[in-house]
Design a protein that fits this description.
about 450 residues; alpha/beta; 14 helices; about 40% helix
Length: about 450
């Protein structure tokens, strides 16, 4: 120890290295937009000039049905056991109801075992825990891009994983039948490219119905992706949170419905109440896995992500009421989703904004490329900023790691007056936009790979 004349030692940092990494993480664009909305939310009576939110994927179309169902006597149950410690995996009776529900509504190939189900406070928690137990820091996961950008933070904050993009483009080639089409060849190319970079890919994440495209994977493609993952011993995480938000007359194939899986021990299913039941604030997500070791590890972490006992009881009552679900809620929800989607799509068409054909989810993927000053992500963010200045929150493609600037996601599961107001604000902004639109030329593969590098830097 030095003599009394030395300078005092610098205080030790308040945070660990891990804490500093987490605290220093930049918020994603979806989080930034939502924060602006919370600071000045639109209200038709109290704040009609506030921020109109068509950027956050919430279904507000059927609250009247949920509210009525909540008033029935079976919901009014406050016994002492609901206020005591319970199984961190989820109350047994609740998991039993979830197992029955998913067996029927996902058309599962065989009856699901409630012991293979873990309940957590939202699918964000499911992503965070799965990423922690499936991978080591620095590992990667394959994911077709564009995709819900919130997955990046959910897999990075705990697990320190890095996304490995499988770039999808709007241009239709001879091998494709529609824009942004996923193929096994694209999965293979992304995996091989990543191997050369020295990144160990441990998993493949698929979102079905897709967010933000609204696309639904055909059964054959789903099987091909599972076979691909099996060849390379990759875990497959199937995010089916929009499973019952299919409004088109199209067959949805859940991974649970497949008769035989190439690698059932590495195939994991996620679902939640946020989207299909319009209950984002309830915060309940579901993981189904038949891998005992993975579930054992997940359940150790589930104690930090438990759901409230009274919430589990209330949701159990919803799931038990098949008459209400089959004859009231789901048919009405599908009808309202389809009507709202058509209203937004027609309104966008009237002001010259085309959208990608979609069949599921709560949103449309809209093409604003002709309104960009240049075909760059800087121009996309500039346009997004102008939307925000017009008090309109929609989500830019960059928030979904899209490889083509100019695409935006708009949520249609909202009231008619808000959809009309959205179109009105868009029209006013786009018609007064002094930007000179530039022709939208097809990009070369080289340019897309450069954007891949650019986006990967942004995500670090």
């Amino acid at each position: 120890m030095s003599g009394g004349g030395g300078s005092p030692a610098a205080p030790s940092p308040a945070l660990s290295g891990r804490g500093a990494r987490i605290a220093g993480a930049a918020p994603g664009l979806l989080d930034e937009g939502f924060a602006l909305y919370l600071a000045d939310p639109f209200d038709r009576e109290r704040n009609p000039e506030g921020v109109l939110n068509l950027g956050t994927s919430e279904n507000t179309l059927c609250f009247d049905l949920i509210e009525e169902r909540l008033t029935r006597p079976d919901m009014n149950y406050l016994q002492p056991d609901l206020f005591q410690y319970s199984d961190a995996q989820g109350i047994r009776s609740f998991r039993e109801e979830i197992a029955k529900f998913l067996t029927d509504y996902a058309r599962a190939a065989k009856e699901l075992n409630p012991e293979n189900i873990t309940v957590m406070n939202g699918c964000c928690a499911v992503f965070a825990t799965l990423s922690t137990v499936l991978c080591d820091p620095g590992d990667g996961y394959l994911i077709p891009a564009p995709y819900y950008g919130g997955i990046n933070s959910k897999t990075w904050l705990y697990g320190e994983l890095q996304p490995v993009h499988v770039p999808l483009f709007s241009e239709v080639t001879n091998e494709e039948s529609h824009p942004f089409q996923l193929t096994v060849e694209k999965l293979e190319a992304a995996l091989q490219r990543t191997k050369k970079q020295g990144i160990w890919v441990r998993a493949l994440i698929l979102i079905n119905p897709h967010n933000p495209l609204g696309d639904i994977y055909p059964a054959q493609l789903l099987k091909e992706c599972l076979d691909f993952a099996h060849r390379y011993e990759l875990h497959v995480v199937m995010d089916e949170i929009y499973m019952l938000s299919v409004y088109d007359d199209i067959t949805f194939t859940s991974v649970l419905s497949l008769e035989s899986l190439p690698d059932p021990e590495r195939t994991h299913f996620m679902w939640g109440f946020s989207k299909d039941f319009g209950m984002c604030g309830i915060r309940v997500g579901v993981l189904h896995t038949t891998n005992h070791e993975i579930q054992k590890a997940v359940n150790q972490l589930a104690v930090f992500h438990s759901c409230l006992g009274p919430v589990q009881h209330v949701l159990s009552q919803f799931l038990k009421d098949r008459d209400w679900m089959d004859n009231v809620f789901f048919p009405t929800n599908k009808k309202r989703l389809k009507e709202a989607q058509k209203l937004l799509v027609d309104g966008l068409a009237d002001i010259g904004v085309p959208v990608l054909k979609s069949s599921g989810g709560l949103y449309v993927w809209a093409d604003f490329r002709k309104f960009l000053k240049s075909q760059t992500f800087e121009a996309e963010l500039e346009l997004w900023q102008k939307f925000l200045e017009k008090k309109l929150l929609i989500s830019p493609g960059k928030a979904f790691c899209c490889y083509e600037p100019g695409w935006f996601r708009l949520v249609f599961s909202n009231s008619v007056d808000k959809i009309y107001l959205c179109i009105k604000r868009l029209e006013e902004m786009l018609h007064t936009n002094d930007a000179e639109p530039v022709p939208n030329s097809a990009s070369s593969l080289t340019k897309h790979l450069e954007q891949d590098h650019y986006l990967s830097l942004l995500l670090k």
